[in-house]
Design a protein that fits this description.
Layout lengths: L1 E3 L12 E6 L2 E5 L16 H11 L3 E10 L9 E3 L2 E5 L14 E2 L9 H13 L4 E3 L2 E5 L7 H9 L4 E3 L2 H10 L3 E10 L15 H23 L18 E2 L2
Parallel strand pairs: 4-11, 5-8, 6-9, 9-10
Antiparallel strand pairs: 1-2, 2-3, 4-10, 5-11, 7-12
Length: 248
């Protein structure tokens, strides 16, 4: 493994990028919150992070996250391979084309790579992990957790997952024509589970403890998945910006 520092037009990424090999494939790794988890969700330089990957030649991005469940059937320890997001953040730099001279309207109907999603689901199930094929993640600003009223609202919409980092990360990857898939590791039930007073609201200690105990499964999934990614890109991600520009 070696570490590289990448300069971008958008400032510094969250840290140095580690580059190594998995099954003969070169892989780059970057902790989005920084090496010491010192960056709150809204302070992450998402544009620099994704741009740095693009500069290094990355074409696919696997993005595991800790997340809370909004539905009783999505249990702590399950993995959700999201297929939709709802953005509830504000003020985050969320495009590489904010000022023109051409306006970019990237298509976001299906914001995650269908090929990477399917591979993640199949690989996880082969490893014995409970995988949910699809799910909507509502992305909150953070760094605070949800109120009970907010969580009740999110769940009543049928959304499965709550997280703080999926936006704008996913859509910036699309603007760079990178394939992108999220695997949400469910660590908690957000504000608790209705009808079960023994399930308390999420705390940092709970998230850290649960995530640490499941790190091996996340790592196993990623290592197995990398070797199964096809050489050719036949998904729509590679040409996402082809018809996105107007004017200028």
């Amino acid at each position: 493994m070696r570490e590289v520092e990448v300069e971008t037009p958008y400032g510094k990424p969250s840290g140095a990028i580690a580059i190594g090999a998995v099954g003969g494939e070169e892989v780059a790794f970057l902790p989005r919150h920084g090496p010491r988890h010192a960056l709150p969700p809204a302070a992450i330089n998402y544009r620099a992070n994704l741009w740095a990957f693009k500069e290094l030649g990355v074409e696919r991005v696997l993005a595991p996250t800790a997340a809370g469940s909004l539905q009783p059937q999505v249990k702590p320890g399950d993995f959700v391979v999201c297929d939709q997001f709802v953005d509830r953040t504000w003020g985050r730099a969320d495009t590489y084309h904010p000022d023109g001279p051409r306006v970019a309207h990237v298509a976001a109907a299906d914001p995650y790579c269908p090929v990477l999603r399917a591979l993640a689901v199949d690989t996880g199930r082969e490893l014995g992990v409970t995988m949910h094929d699809g799910g909507t993640v509502v992305v909150i600003q953070g760094p605070r957790f949800s109120t009970r009223a907010e969580s009740k609202w999110f769940g009543s919409q049928g959304w499965e997952v709550v997280n703080m980092t999926q936006y704008p990360e996913a859509i910036l990857a699309r603007e760079l024509e990178l394939c992108y898939a999220n695997v949400s590791l469910i660590t908690d039930y957000d504000v608790g589970l209705a009808g079960d007073p023994s399930v308390e609201p999420v705390s940092v200690a709970d998230v850290e403890r649960f995530f640490a105990s499941n790190n091996a499964r996340v790592r196993e999934l990623i290592l197995a998945l990398v070797g199964r990614i096809p050489k050719a890109r036949e998904c729509p991600c590679a040409t996402a910006m082809q018809n996105a520009f107007i004017g200028g």
